[in-house]
Amino acid sequence: MYFQWYPGHMTKAKRMMQENIKLIDLLIELVDARVPISSRNPDLDELGKNKARLILLNKADLAEEKWNDAWMEYFQKQGCMVVKVNSKKGGGMKSIQGVIQEACKEKMERDRRRGILNRPVRAMVVGIPNVGKSTFINALAGKACTKTGNRPGVTKGKQWIRLNKNVELLDTPGILWPKFEDQSVGLRLAYIGSIKDEILNTEELAAELTGFLVQYYPGVLAEKYAMEESENGFENLRKIAESRHCLIRGNEPDLEKAAKLMLDDFRNGRLGRITLEFPQ
Ligand code: G4P
Fold first, then answer.
1. Are 175 and 13 in contact (CB under 8 A)?
2. First and final CA of the chain: distance in angstroms?
3. Residue 134, Cβ neighbours under 10 Å: how many?
4. Quick check: 25 and 51 in contact, CB under 8 A?
5. Is the dihedral of CA 89, 13, 193, 55 positive or negative?
6. What is the pTM assigned to this prediction?
């Protein structure tokens, strides 16, 4: 399967991000805990140099806990601050404010030495589409926060949300697209639903995913669909179709319907917590 995916609004989003990045001190980068590397954008290192950085493993509820911990360790070893979160349920939010403060300690100290007092740290949430940016902002800012409104001058036209007396968050997230140089990256992003299904061959995609599951999570498909697992992805789809009575004329298995059903089950966590990429 070959992925080529350049949404038209990408250039505009990148320009906006470049403009906004000038206004902030801290980048809060959301990655998908199931694919923490594939869901990152390497341009961010260039865009965000000289900024404090915080990585959030979002949708941690959908990924396997032991791999969440392994990924935390992986990023920490690279000198990054990292937190596991479930933005949908609000899990991990309590610790975030403290971590944001911690991530900006150096910056605040520098300000203090220069005699700049009481200037709040400004942060922006960034990530690829669908990683959960809006959900996270709502979860974090939902309670106890006030919008500071437009400020003339420096932050013209921008809405800032005051998280506490020390931290403000830009209410529009920065959107970046993943890099598709490696086709396996495209495949993983397609599994999690970050690439529109209309431009993909759903059957091929689902068949590939069953192959991954049979190899790394043996027994998951067998249990969910009361079937025998095979190394052949299309054979698995056929069995899922039979098990779920997805049939077309002449009682033939409807592979497309089975593929959609299986992808939907996976994406919504109905196959259990599954991590798709593992730290080296
Ligand atoms: P974006 O701004 O980065 O584009 O992403 P957005 O917040 O719109 O979230 C994309 C989808 O991911 C939403 O699902 C959202 O509910 C879900 N999501 C966000 N964070 C988490 C999380 O930590 N765990 C889980 N399980 N899901 C999360 P949706 O299908 O578009 O909507 P709905 O199911 O909420 O109705």
1. yes
2. 25
3. 14
4. yes
5. negative
6. 0.91
Q: What does DSSP assign to residue 215?
A: H
Q: Is 132 in the pocket of ligand 1 (CB under 6 A)?
A: yes
Instruction: Spell out the domains of the chain, with CATH numbers in brackets.
Output: 8-171 (3.40.50.300), 202-280 (1.10.1580.10)
Ligand 1 mean position, distance from CA 58 (Å): 10
Tell me the C-alpha to C-alpha distance, in Å, between residue 17 and each of 23, 174, 227. 10, 5, 47
Q: What is the pLDDT of residues 257-272, one digit of tens each?
A: 999 999 999 999 999 9
Q: Tokens 């865009």 identify what position?
A: 47
Q: Which of 238, 263, 235 is nearest to 252 (CA)?
A: 238
Mutation pick for ligand 1 pocket among 88, 177, 267, 270 (CB with most ligand atoms within 8 Å) = 88
60 vs 68: CA distance, rounded Å: 7
Q: Quick check: CB of 86 below 6 Å from ligand 1?
A: yes
For tokens 């899990």, the residue is 91
Cβ atoms of 136 and 88 closer than 8 Å: no
Contact 244, 225 (CB under 8 A): yes
The answer to whether the beta carbons of residues 129 and 175 sit under 8 Å apart is: yes
Phi/psi at 19 (5° precision)? -65, -45
pLDDT digits (tens, 9 = 90+) for 54-105: 999 999 999 999 999 999 999 999 888 999 999 999 878 888 888 888 888 8
